[in-house]
User: Fold these one by one.
Assistant:
Number 1:
Amino acid sequence: MSTYRIAVLPGDGIGQEVVAEAVRVLRAVGKAAGASFEFEEALVGGGAIDATGQPLPAPTLALCRSSHAILFGSVGGPKWDHLPQEQRAERGLLALRKELDLYANLRPATCFPMLVDASPLKRSVVEGTDIMVIRELTGGLYFGEPRGRAPLAGGGERGVNTMVYTTPEIERVARVGFEVARKRKKRLTSVDKANVLTVSQLWREVVTKIGKEYPDVTLDHVLVDNCAMALVQKPTQFDTIVTENTFGDILSDEAAILAGSMGMLPSASLGVAGAGGVPVGLYEPVHGTAPDIAGKGIANPIAAILSAAMLLRYSLSMGREADRVEAAVRRVLEQGHRTRDIAAAGERIVGTKDMGELIVRDVERG
Ligand code: NAD
């Protein structure tokens, strides 16, 4: 029996509530598949600040480094908002991304047929949308040097950021793009601005070169402005998208609104150093700690549960079990069960635990 060590970092607010349900689903699917999961919980974010003074205590980081995967909730809240930037709860997540060199961020945007009316786009446009956006997370404009502000001799200032990528940085995220596309419909779209930016010309050349290693995946290149338009005009034309940090930041949010609610959006961040040098992955819902509903038992756990499905697929290579979880979510929604955030007028509403329980029971039935 394979044994996998999973670090569980629920964090603050509804992170605690939704991660508990995701763990229950993982236990159920592990049991059904004959895999053994060892869950170890650790402090991060505001709760960690209260207990230790640090948003990412050393034992938490050590646990993450020695685990096969990390299941993360969310961090932050009004209680810690007054702290200086470096000591804020959100630093816990940023520090983890940095320490583990989590360079590829995967965000699916799936339009569930039964929730199609929650999308701001027309049914005819959005129906059938199933996109994975892969965003480079550690390079580009947000980290490039030089950057800063300097006074101008004649008055005013000059502000600078630098979009910079090296060949190895592009190669590694391109490989993630091709590997993910291989597990989906084998179509990869690389997004850049190669008609204007030199850094994008390098991006395009390197992605094309890596593409030769993946003859079974069809690669095309799209300019970022065209991609932004096409996402709202005909999102079904996309399967897997890979792009640099800034473009990915914007496009993944744009793609996310196609799916309707925050409570439905999972994510994965893949990095370099995990247990025994195995690539490590951090899996988390896109949403935050939702202080307005925290503690009420009404948060939607589906984003966290779908993040657990991504954990199975991308860190543990348990694609069949990931499919099983995703199918269970779909069936429970088809049966008409809704948390408050995705309920239309007149629909029956269930709480966080009940939604978790319904999905666990469906997974158990297989
Ligand atoms: P949020 O995502 O927490 O909430 C935005 C809105 O969506 C709220 O109305 C909330 O009730 C609703 N919502 C979010 N998740 C939901 C779910 N699962 N089910 C039902 N409704 C849900 O964003 P915010 O209010 O801007 O941020 C609150 C706190 O979370 C802040 O401290 C912020 O810094 C933090 N935050 C953390 C992360 C993270 O840990 N990755 C991400 C975003 C925000």
Note: The first strand starts at residue 3 and ends at 11.
Number 2:
Amino acid sequence: MPKVFVTRRIPEPGLAILRRAAEVKVWEEELPPPRDVLLKEVEDCDALVPLLTDRVDDELLDRAPHLKVVANYAVGYDNIDVPACTARGVLVTNTPGVLTETTADLAFALILAAGRRLVEADKFLRAGRWQTWGPTLLLGQDVYGATLGLVGLGRIGAAVARRARGFNMQVIYHSRHRQEALEKELGAAYASFDELLHRSDFISIHVPLTAATRHLFNADAFARMKPTAVLVNTARGPIVDEAALYAALKTGRIAAAGLDVMDPEPPRRDNPLLTLDNVILLPHIGSASVATRTRMATMAAENAAAALRGELPPNLVNREVWDRRRA
Ligand code: DGY
């Protein structure tokens, strides 16, 4: 029987699929396996099901001579050195599609909550500070009719654009490639990054973390945004330069932010963003609904099981490994 190591307890339906295909070992702790444990565990495993907290790199691959597949329990795979896996003939898979709507719901929740200062208002009331209805009490930014700038128009960005239509928002987007068919369907207009920064009332980030997107939102970007603008990030923390974001929020350079992702995760206790009222901070829960996390588990498991059976995994990231094997 092949061996699989799963780096955390994923929902049972996924584990059931894996058990039919392999001998399964699950890291049962709440925190990720320490690096030395992970390196030991992969020594005899044929498949690895990691989370985005587990780094799969040359060091790990060197220790895993039997590894055939890395089936990430996430759509993003910046935790995996894909070229290193490809060079060794190791298949890499992810879980695209299933978490699109759940993550778009959360992005939209952050747009509303940060724009209308919901978390701050809740804290204000609980602290016993609410004395009377006030004409200028906790004023925020209108979402209805505002301009939404989407950075990235992939599955999740497009799903946010569909929600925005219900709020009569003007949707503009920036991405590496123009998507003219989607533009028509969504009523979205293409903008340069600079134009998007200048025009948007709300900006929501939906690009993967790459060398080109790391710190895309830096002091220079914040300087070009409206002072009333709200930034939402449900993609990856390092796309935003947190020191620059702190300065922009603290000085009123922009109005507010909603972050579901940070750099690093979890944030250090002395991260100054924790001291600000005009930022909502969530512990990376974009895909955290029961149904979605269960579906992610079955997808990751089906990917791993297919690879172990010698079949094409449904969500293969590095197709060239498969093509090379078939050649
Ligand atoms: C992903 O899948 O990449 C999310 O960040 C976690 O679900």
Note: The two ends are 27 Å apart (CA to CA).
